[in-house]
Write a structure and sequence with these properties.
10 helices, globular, Endonuclease III, domain 1, mainly alpha, 0% strand
């Protein structure tokens, strides 16, 4: 059995089976996931998955130190790039966030990774959540550090994506991680 959301497209299957909920701890990996979750806000996740290679190319492999040096010409380049979601507010937030992440370095990773938990039972279709007290706290701390375009829902999606919570549905074949 798989989580129901993973059955809608081959990209979902690949993401669910091999990436979603797997541990990510590198600064660049966390910056990528945070950026993609922010771009997803208001859109279907499949849109982001299908454009992921385009995002990686457009945003210098999500290397914060490189993206932090982007300027107005890069914003205009990105606004004309059909390989990504062309939303000026999200593009500008990603660049601004890269500057914060570059300045914070490993502290950025520690800030995010401090919010995980694995001791809760896996959800059922009826108990799936979009936020948690931990995601509210994480969003507040990220905003205080200067990160833009992040709220409790985006923070929770990030927690799910990088393995800080195990939200594979009860009965899903993906093995449960130990704490």
């Amino acid at each position: 059995m798989r989580c129901g959301w993973a059955l809608g497209a081959p990209e979902y299957l690949e993401y669910h089976d091999h990436e979603w909920g797997q541990p990510v701890s590198s600064v660049s990996g966390l910056f990528e996931r945070l950026s993609l979750e922010a771009f997803q806000s208001g859109l279907a996740w499949i849109t982001i998955l299908r454009k992921r290679d385009g995002f990686r190319a457009a945003f210098a492999g999500f290397q914060p130190e490189r993206v932090a040096r982007f300027g107005q010409a890069d914003v205009e380049r990105l606004m004309n790039d059909p390989g990504i979601v062309r939303n000026r507010a999200k593009i500008e937030a990603t660049i601004a966030n890269a500057r914060v992440v570059d300045e914070l370095g490993e502290e950025f990773a520690r800030l995010i990774l401090a919010h995980g938990y694995h001791d809760r039972p896996r959800p059922t279709e009826k108990t799936v959540r979009a936020t948690s007290p931990e995601s509210v706290t994480m969003a507040r701390q990220l905003k205080a550090a200067g990160i833009r375009f992040v709220g409790p829902t985006t923070a929770y999606a990030l927690m799910q994506a990088v393995g800080l919570v195990d939200d594979h549905l009860e009965g899903c074949f993906v093995p449960r991680r130990s704490s």
